[in-house]
From TrEMBL:
GO molecular function: cysteine desulfurase activity; iron-sulfur cluster binding; metal ion binding
Cofactor names: pyridoxal 5'-phosphate
Family: Belongs to the class-V pyridoxal-phosphate-dependent aminotransferase family. NifS/IscS subfamily.
Pfam families, per database record: Aminotran_5 (PF00266)
Catalysis: reaction(s): (sulfur carrier)-H + L-cysteine = (sulfur carrier)-SH + L-alanine
Gene3D superfamilies reported in the protein's UniProt record: 1.10.260.50, Aspartate Aminotransferase, domain 1, Type I PLP-dependent aspartate aminotransferase-like (Major domain)
Name this polypeptide is given: Cysteine desulfurase
Organism in which the protein naturally occurs: Amnibacterium kyonggiense
Domain Aminotransferase class V span(s) in chain numbering: 4-365
Length: 378
């Protein structure tokens, strides 16, 4: 059996979510229609919203359904900036959805303030506080709850507190973290938080921006005024139902599942470090400051892209970084932001575990990777 170890790009569909989706797809009706079929679809949609809200720790009205994590991030970054205008603060090593959205508003006049991260890709609260003190016109701060490439977890509570003290809107990109570690919108303290179904074991094509009632936000899409007038377009009740089921299951099992997945990751890490003297873990050390399923290494003298293709031929699926940069041959901006040199960064592999991972996946990785490294030495 091929080993799938790229769960950070999109994890496997949970059977419960697949069953819920199959059943919900049989329903007919636009949730905005007033006839009985439309109202039945509306009831299905709103029940899913309530379940999502309970899993995420927010009110149902705060759940704005989107087409996925990228749209949620864009609505937060572009819509949040347009609502206030001013400086946009973002750390190094953010996801491409954030950096590209930031570049888009820069073309509209936003001044981008890039904040340094530490060698584990984390933003220190004192760095943000100092930047906010220097930027009296700051409009928005955006930060990852956990880095999608190297797995380091930010302590978002103090970061959100710093933004609130400066009266600046804060967006937390929780797409990699929600469902993998305990995380609740009502405990974070930010006005905006993005989440995605496909990272939880739900279907692709649906996500959400959690937005407080008072969050300044300008819509990107215009039309029927759905989702509090902030995201027009007919929402898919079926996708929302499956998203809610996946979120409930992930959140309910987060403690036990994080321990199980971390054990698989740690076994893989020990095996790789023993077999590859030139391998080095990137990001926070295994423990509470790292996503349980995240294993990111650089291998001295190796070419990560070549290793990826050889591993794929051997039946092991991994990545070298964010799937949103797939097909783009360049050094990871995350590693560069962490201070890793270009030559070292070229030997990167991102190996990520999820709810369907097991010991056989670790066995396949450890059997394949060490023998392939000499073939890709630079």
């Amino acid at each position: 059996m091929p080993a799938y170890l790229d769960h950070a790009a999109g994890t496997t569909l949970r059977p419960s979510a697949a069953a819920a989706l199959a059943e919900a797809l049989g329903a007919v009706g636009n949730p905005s229609s007033v006839h009985r079929h439309g109202q039945a679809a509306r009831a299905m949609l709103e029940e899913a919203r309530e379940r999502l809200a309970a899993a995420a720790g927010c009110e149902p009205v705060e759940v704005l359904l989107t087409s996925g994590g990228t749209e949620a991030v864009n609505l937060a970054v572009v819509g949040g900036w347009r609502a206030r205008r001013g400086a946009l603060l973002l750390p190094g090593g953010e996801h491409a959805a954030t950096t590209e959205a930031a570049d888009a508003v820069a073309r509209e006049g936003a001044r981008l303030v890039h904040l340094p991260v530490d060698e584990e890709a984390r933003l220190e609260p004192e760095v943000l506080r100092a930047a906010l003190a220097d930027e009296p016109d700051a409009a928005l701060v955006t930060v990852l709850a956990a880095n999608n490439e190297v797995g380091s977890i930010n302590d978002v509570g103090p970061l959100a507190a710093a933004a609130r003290a400066a009266h600046v809107t804060m967006h937390v990109d929780a797409i990699a973290a929600f469902g993998a570690v305990p995380l609740r919108f009502d405990a974070v303290g930010a006005e905006l938080m993005s989440v995605s179904s496909v990272k939880l074991g739900g279907p692709a094509g649906v996500g959400a921006l959690l937005a407080s009632r008072t969050a300044p936000l300008t819509p990107l899409l215009h039309g029927g005024g759905q989702e509090r007038g902030l995201r027009s377009g007919t929402p898919s009740a079926a996708l929302a139902v499956a998203f809610a089921v996946a979120a409930e299951e992930a959140v309910a099992a987060v403690d036990a599942e994080s321990r199980r997945v971390a054990a698989l990751r740690d076994r893989a890490l020990v095996g790789l470090l023993a077999a590859l003297p030139g391998a080095r873990l990137r990001g926070a050390a295994p423990g509470p400051d790292r996503l349980p399923g995240s294993l990111h290494v650089t291998v001295d003298g190796a070419d990560g892209e070549s290793l990826l293709f050889l591993l794929d031929a051997a039946g092991v699926s991994v990545s070298t970084g964010s799937a949103c940069l797939a097909g783009v041959t360049r050094v990871s901006p995350v590693l560069l932001a962490m201070g890793v040199g270009e030559e070292e960064a070229r030997g990167a592999l991102r190996i990520t575990f999820g709810h369907s991972s097991d010991d056989a996946d670790v066995d396949a990785l450890l059997a394949a990777l060490p023998s392939l490294v000499p073939a890709v030495a630079r």
